[in-house]
Amino acid sequence: MIIEAPSYAQLYLFIGGERIDARARERLSVINPATGERIGDLPVATDGDLQRALAAAERGFARWRSVSAFDRARILHGAAVLVRERAENIARTMTTEQGKVLVESRAEVVACAELFDWVAEEGRRAYGRVVPSRSPAIRQLVLREPVGPVAAFTPWNFPAITPARKLAGALGAGCSIVIKPAEETPATALALLEALLDAGVEPEAVSMLFGDPAHISKTLIASPIIRKVSFTGSIAVGKQLAHLAADGTKRMTLELGGHAPVIVSEHADLARAVNMSVAAKYRNAGQVCVSPSRFIVHRSIYDAFVDRFTAKAAGLRIGNGLDEQTQMASLANERRRSGIDALVRDALERGATARTGGSAIDGPGFFYQATVLTDLPADTRVLHEEPFGPVATITAFDALDEAIGEANRLPYGLSAYAFTQDLAESIAISERVETGMLGINHFGIALAELPFGGVKASGYGSEGGTEGLDSYTVTKSVTMA
Ligand code: NAD
User: Fold this and answer.
1) Which domains are delineated in the chain?
2) What is the position in ligand 1's atom list of the atom closest to the CA of 256?
3) Does the beta carbon of 463 lie inside 6 Å of ligand 1?
């Protein structure tokens, strides 16, 4: 049964404390991916809006950095309370504009509150150091200061937690922020913004813009006011933004794509590996940067793993994310559905087997079948390119060295997983797999208290953990005679 979403929110830009609605600007349509229907009109920021947001960020930084760390923490904790109170509405809004099943939206909203709480506390512990000097007449200090106004860009797959990471990190450290969340999922980001404002964040310290992503990012990053850039999205766009940031010698955090290997050893608990893998693979219909996507399974258990994985994937109930019975919902947009289908068609044309799925689902909305591919020739595109959708590939290995080599074969290095009960294997995998995040015997890697970020082509810098605040601070050494 579908429980009605709240009526979809009015959308606006938030600049320097002012809300600018769609009546006063050019508009973009927001679409419900489960039905294909237009649900909202999003105003497009003008050049004047961008300049006003930059000026507000400069003024807002001066004010917000002078709020004590104690009071900033109090305000962020207050925002966490409000997010929890409003969680059900925010979750339904998220499902309506992004598609994912309601239970996932609810968990994501709660994770935002946890992140606000975590960063609130970390901000109070942004300790500096007193460094012993070479002379009793000299005092040496290392101070940590907010880096300055931040420009941030976030994607549509996690409409709440990705903006929350950037908003919390910047504000917790005492920075101002101009953020451009994804145009596909604006209402969720606006709901977080409202919680921050209601809790007492300085209004000029946060502006939220929507519009032409390339134009907004180019303009903001080129401005001397912006001192730090944070982007989550595709590798191609991340590289473009890194070039722009390099021109202004600006600090940058890049959270890009991945193609996560999952090594399933002959020493794995097979039932646990299958159950957890299917749940993790098809979460958010696979549109997750840390989604497990390349299952590398020991030959001795390969057939059993494939059979059980396929049976569970084939049994997933696919439907509208607002229906509490749904286990996998629609993709977020048609672009993603055609992208997935092109990868699957390529695999099938090269001789791969679709154990289940393999096609788009007819009818309204952007649905695709939960798909399992085996017998993949080495040159199959999906073994090289991030699928970012409900597709699992399963290949076999004989020796652990081979599995680790396969895990490290691609330029990505965001997340990796392994299932094994063997301690020596766990140690070898944790030391030798090239990744920013590794889950052994489970998939719970994205928590407020842990750094979230990749290596190799998957980007640099971390959000969350103690590292998350670091990326919004700079150090200043002060020596006094
Ligand atoms: P995309 O690169 O076109 O867009 C990703 C996000 O970046 C969107 O929200 C978009 O608005 C924004 N964006 C695009 N161009 C921009 C620019 N020049 N400046 C600032 N922001 C910009 O990709 P897509 O078609 O939406 O998604 C496809 C691929 O993106 C996926 O296959 C996946 O690799 C990657 N992706 C990764 C993540 C992640 O969490 N790392 C999230 C979403 C998408």
Assistant:
1) 12-256+457-480 (3.40.605.10), 260-447 (3.40.309.10)
2) 41
3) no
